[in-house]
Amino acid sequence: MGFTIEKQMVFLGLVVLFPLLCTSQNTFTSSRATYYGSPDCYGTPSGACGFGEYGRTVNYGNVAGVSRLYRNGTGCGACYQVRCTNPQYCSDDGANIVVTDYGEGDRTDFILSPRAYAKLAKANLALELFAYGVVDVEYRRISCKYSDYNLMFKVHEHSRYPHYLAIVILYVAGQNDITAVELWQEDYKEWRPMRRAYGAVFDLANPPPGSITLRFQVSGSAGYTWVQSNNAIPSYWKAGAVYDSTIQLT
């Protein structure tokens, strides 16, 4: 069976377009980056994502505050490769960072921790790069890799048993975003949505009594999917407790 001219044109178009689709995730976007002060060069535990101490030390402190990429909190926990573009001072690979905060600078997309900013530089040239203050960069989103962790969730310190429950989502692997969280209400036999309070923090007033099962809406390469935690929050939950969802995102 032969191709018509129209089918041949469509086929040729797909042949040309397919390599572009396959490599689109490797495309870098031009921007600018700066850094913030830190007494130990790590991140800040008071970032707008609500991560607390996790936001200070995750990824060995190679973290950043972002502006446009914050996406009303959905961007919290996303990973990016950031590299500056001055060939005299900048390393080839730059820094792989985790978004832990919101921040706006002088037309910048990234405000890096000092540890992350130093990684932009070639060996022994970090001080010269710090002297610039703001540098031109290019960035792309990359997969977060946490080989020793599943998706985790923490009962936020502001939770008050039994009247107010807030959780913060940790260790979101891959190029995935958590876009919604729901808990199972046994007496009504239905899933009940939690509110995104800010950043990676979801909350609910007057949560149901008993153990609490959560499910998470994940946005990734496969579109939107729901994944359910096999590890329920116990009946008498406490602020600060961390739970393993047993979910491994890729």
Describe the structure.
The protein is built from 4 helices and 15 strands. The protein has 250 residues and is α+β, with helices and mostly antiparallel strands. The strands form 3 sheets. It has a 6-stranded mixed β-barrel with strand order 1-5-2-4-3-6. It is elongated. The N terminus is likely disordered.
Q: What is the share of helical residues?
A: 10-25%
Number of strands: 15
CATH architecture of the largest domain: Beta Barrel
Elements, N to C (H/E): HEHEEEEHHEEEEEEEEEE
> pLDDT under 50 segments (min length 5)?
1-24
CATH topology of the largest domain: Barwin-like endoglucanases
**Rg computed from alpha carbons, rounded to a whole number of angstroms:** 21 Å
Strand order of the largest sheet: 1-5-2-4-3-6
CATH homology-level superfamily of the largest domain: RlpA-like domain
Write the topology of this structure.
Elements: H1 5-23, E1 29-35, H2 53-57, E2 63-66, E3 79-84, E4 95-102, E5 110-112, H3 114-119, H4 126-132, E6 135-142, E7 152-155, E8 164-170, E9 177-185, E10 190-193, E11 195-198, E12 201-205, E13 214-220, E14 223-228, E15 242-244
Parallel strand pairs: 1-5, 2-4
Antiparallel strand pairs: 1-6, 2-5, 3-4, 3-6, 7-8, 7-15, 8-12, 9-10, 9-13, 11-12, 13-14
